[in-house]
């Protein structure tokens, strides 16, 4: 059998060796499908995307909550956003990860909400990096939607294969 693997140069086995010597290309993440004729950053399109199978929504917590409830304390912002997201999760059954900056909540435990994974970034790290890391860490067959209006988050989430929608679009859907 070893003799069969060593044909003359340029044969099929030689081509197979060259292919296997090259690093495997990373699998591209499928984008959440946008309904035909709709822009992706539209509340109705977002609602449809969230109802698709296996989609995960990753939310830049304070980026969304500050836009809606910037006049209340961070704790109240978190509570309001998580309540609204819990209702959306009940309607759509989508997996959700919500990331908040952890600098102001050192030692606090993330609140438990059914269907929501709530996280705080480490005190010395902004939530932005955690949002992108969480989106990128999901299995590559899972379509990911990131809700943030932060340019850095949007750029890096797109590079990780996620579809990005604005905080305002998510808030419109939550209302």
Note the main attributes of this structure.
disordered N terminus; 175 residues
Q: Would you list the SSEs in sequence order as H and E? A: HHEHHEEHEHEH
Distance between the termini: 67 Å
Question: What is the strand arrangement across the widest sheet?
Answer: 3-2-1-4-5
Percentage of residues in DSSP E strands = 5-15%
Shape: globular
Mean pLDDT: 83
Helix content: 40-55%
Largest sheet: 5 strands, parallel
Please identify the structural class as seen in this structure: alpha/beta
Low-pLDDT stretches are 1-25
Short note summarizing the structure:
The chain is an alpha/beta fold.
Structural description of this entry:
The protein has 175 residues and is of the alpha/beta class. Helices cover 42% and strands 13% of the residues. The chain is built from 7 helices and 5 strands. It has helices spanning 12-21, 43-50, 61-69, 74-92, 127-137, 151-159, 167-174; strands at residues 56-60, 95-100, 116-120, 144-147, 163-165. The chain has a 5-stranded parallel beta sheet with strand order 3-2-1-4-5, with helices on both faces. It is globular, with a radius of gyration of 21 Å.
């Amino acid at each position: 059998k070893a003799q069969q693997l060593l044909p003359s140069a340029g044969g099929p086995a030689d081509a197979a060796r060259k292919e296997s010597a090259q690093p495997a290309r990373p699998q591209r993440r499928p984008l959440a499908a946008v309904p035909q004729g709709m822009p992706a950053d539209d509340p109705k399109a977002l609602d449809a995307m969230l109802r698709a199978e296996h989609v995960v929504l990753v939310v830049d917590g304070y980026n969304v909550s500050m836009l809606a409830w910037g006049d209340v304390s961070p704790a109240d912002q978190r509570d309001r956003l998580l309540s609204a997201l819990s209702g959306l999760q009940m309607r759509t059954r989508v997996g959700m990860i919500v990331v908040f900056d952890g600098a102001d909540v050192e030692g606090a435990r993330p609140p438990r909400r059914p269907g929501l994974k709530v996280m705080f970034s480490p005190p010395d790290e902004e939530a932005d990096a955690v949002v992108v890391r969480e989106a990128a860490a999901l299995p590559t067959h899972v379509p990911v939607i990131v809700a943030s209006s932060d340019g850095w988050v949007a750029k890096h989430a797109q590079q990780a294969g996620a579809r990005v929608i604005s905080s305002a679009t998510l808030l419109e859907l939550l209302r």
